[in-house]
Amino acid sequence: MADSGRLNLNPVDLYDIRSMLSDDERMVQDTVARFTDERVLPIIGDCFDKGVFPLDLIPEIAELGLLGSSLPSQYGGAEMNAVSYGLICQELERGDSGIRSFVSVQSSLCMYPIFAYGSEEQRVRWLPQMAQGKVIGCFGLTEPHGGSDPANMKTHAKKDGDDWIINGAKMWITNGGLAHIAIVWARTDDGIQGFIVERGMKGFATRDIHRKMSLRASVTSELFFDNVRVPDANRLPNVKGLKGPLGCLTQARYGITWGPIGAAIACLTEASEYAKTRILFNKPIGATQAVQLKLADMARRITLAQLLVLQLGRLKDAGKMQPTQVSLAKWNNCRMAIDIAREARDILGAAGITTEFCPIRHGLNLESVITYEGTETVHQLVVGREITGINAF
Questions:
Q1: What is the C-alpha to C-alpha distance for residues 263 and 206, in angstroms, rounded to an integer?
Q2: Beta strand spans in 141-280 (E)
Q3: 126 and 142, same structural domain?
Q4: Among all residues, which ones are annotated catalytic?
Q5: Given the DSSP bridges, would you call strands 279-280 and 191-198 parallel, antiparallel or unpaired?
Q6: Residue 318: is it exposed, middle or buried by C-beta count within 10 angstroms (0-12/13-18/19+)?
Q7: Which residues, if any, are the signal sequence (predicted)?
Q8: 284 and 338 belong to one structural domain
Q9: Does some domain include residue 8?
Q10: What string of DSSP letters covers 323-370?
Q11: Is residue 12 part of a domain?
């Protein structure tokens, strides 16, 4: 029943969450939204079709301060808070998961470990160049035999004088073929340790993975280490054990909890506009109860996800965020977004299978997002362990 006196709500912000953001946070969101609208959306469908990453966008992304945005300014960072970083991820993934993945890897998986676990010399050498987009990094943890059990790592590093000799392989590595450096985690006689492996080091090679049906506008690669000699000065000195790479993944997963909301918003927006203009049986399909129920459910799920990540971001900024909370949000929000992408594709009918519309592209991308940095099952079991106190892995 219509109410002519009511105020119209924003269909993709039904609880006016934007009003809960600070002026700085709104400015960040608006800036990245404008970049996505003007620079990403006009080209990303073609990039996806051709299977290429838009390299020309890297300087612009860096100029906006989106690389290492949370790090101190002395290392090239913009000193943004966690909510701002989340909004960056949301707006970039509204464009494409591949663009958000590039920024997530550079910021959370490469710059963060150098900042958190590296020496001051490493921070000064690498971070300002990475913030400027002049040095691109990748994160070498997942291996060909399986990704959900990092403790079963095969890549190893042996001490040889003042150097380390690394042998092994990594798989499904975002930015691998672009990277100037790789943050590589390897087993040593003193536990798992991290190393900065530089392109050009003898025995280090990368090979891009093709025939992908997901994250096509992103570079995904294999890394190979054949007796790669790495100086001890390139070892991250301030962490040992799995807490190093898992700490990096918590940072990146936090961004992923926000990103899929952007993809879901893009799908809902396109589906709702199509529903208003697609005429069947002498009326728009948006006038049918079946379609309105689907759109309403999309809006409900997006709203819940938005509230979830805003609280998660506030907890992170207060220093109170726990990994289980990140797992819950990644599980919920990735599932939310992939379901919405599929429903939006259905509303679009046959038109929805082309990249002229975004849902099929977002849906395919989200097949990767729901898998990487902890599958849905892994995160469900993390929450289950928290509830029961029993490890079911």
A1: 30
A2: 156-160, 163-174, 181-188, 191-198, 204-208, 220-231, 279-280
A3: no
A4: 373
A5: unpaired
A6: exposed
A7: none
A8: yes
A9: no
A10: HHHHHHHHHHHHHHHHHHHHHHHHHHGGGGGSTTSSHHHHHHHHHHHT
A11: no
Query: Which of 234, 262, 290 is the endpoint of a domain?
Result: 234
Residue 118: both structure tokens together: 């590296």
Which candidate, 70, 69, 323, 120, places its Cα nearest to that of 238? 120
Both tokens of 184, joined, read 């590589």
The 10 Å Cβ neighbour count of residue 363 is 22
**Domain coverage including residue 42:** 17-131
Residue 393 maps to a domain: no
DSSP β-bridge partners for residue 186: 193
Whether 334 and 362 map to the same domain: the answer is: yes
> CATH no. for residue 37?
1.10.540.10
Surface-to-core class of residue 272, CB atoms within 10 Å of its CB (0-12 exposed, 13-18 middle, 19+ buried): buried
Bridge partners of residue 283, in order along the sequence: 280
Structure tokens at 354: 């082309």
Q: Which residues are 168's β-sheet partners? A: 225
At 124-174, the pLDDT tens digits run 999 999 999 999 999 999 998 876 777 789 999 999 999 999 999 999 999
Confidence of residue 3 (pLDDT cuts 50, 70, 90): low
Residues 226 and 165 in one domain: yes
CATH number of the domain that residue 309 is part of:
1.20.140.10
Q: Tell me the per-residue pLDDT of 245-291, one tens digit each, with 9 for 90 and over.
A: 999 999 999 999 999 999 999 999 999 999 999 988 889 999 999 99
Q: What's the one-letter identity of residue 146?
A: G
What is the tally of helices (H) and strands (E) in the chain?
12, 9
Residue 284, SS3?
strand
Determine how many CB atoms are found less than 10 A away from the CB of residue 20. Answer: 13
Cβ neighbours, 10 Å, residue 91: 28
| Host H or E run for residue 88 | helix 82-95
Q: Is the pLDDT of residue 28 over 90?
A: yes
- DSSP string computed for 131-143: HTTSS-EEEE--B
